[in-house]
Write a structure and sequence with these properties.
This protein has 154 residues and is an alpha/beta fold. It has a single domain, classed as Mannitol-specific EII, Chain A (3-Layer(aba) Sandwich), CATH 3.40.930. The protein contains 6 helices and 6 strands. Strands 1, 2, 3, 4, 5 and 6 form a 6-stranded mixed sheet that branches. Helix 1 crosses helix 2. The longest helix is centred in the N-terminal third of the chain and has 16 residues.
């Protein structure tokens, strides 16, 4: 599974202006609801429910909020680069400025876990994150996100 299987340019947001974790999740839920055709409230509720179990702020300025929805037909991703980092109660207590949201169908099982692992691998790559933080355009962010792992290793 590649990143371009999860996100398109319509699912990339550059310089998102939010001032809190809740506002970030609210804004991302609104945007992914438009892409997925799901009710915004249902998306927001499933993401906040997951956050109550434990933060999806994985450290190094990165968060990967995710959840499963009953009526989804496929996996949906949305990437946002925040204009200003926000407190996400991350495991390292550092503010978050890169967020990759992932929604999966209730029945996704292994595909959901594979997608989470793929996103996590991508965002653990420090040179990739540095490029993402230095890019201000949707097209530029999408190009960085969808570079193959082989070209990163070269």
């Amino acid at each position: 599974m590649e990143i371009n299987d999860l996100v398109s340019t319509s699912g990339v947001v550059s310089n998102l202006k939010v001032s809190s974790k809740k506002q970030a999740i609210q804004e991302l839920a609104r945007r992914v609801a438009e892409i997925s055709g799901q009710p915004e409230r249902a998306v927001f509720d499933v993401l906040m429910e997951r956050e109550r179990l434990g933060t999806t702020g994985v450290g190094n300025g990165i968060a990967i909020p995710h959840g499963k929805l009953e009526n989804l037909d496929s996996l949906y991703g949305l990437f946002a680069r925040l204009e200003t980092p926000v407190d996400f109660q991350a495991i390292d207590d550092q503010p978050v400025d890169l967020i990759f949201l992932l929604l999966a169908p209730e029945s996704a099982g292994a595909d959901h876990l594979k997608a989470l692992a793929r996103v996590s691998r991508l965002l653990r790559d420090k040179p990739t994150c540095k490029k993402l933080r230095g890019t201000n355009t949707v097209d530029g962010l999408y190009a960085i996100l969808t570079e193959s792992m082989e070209s990163r290793a070269a």
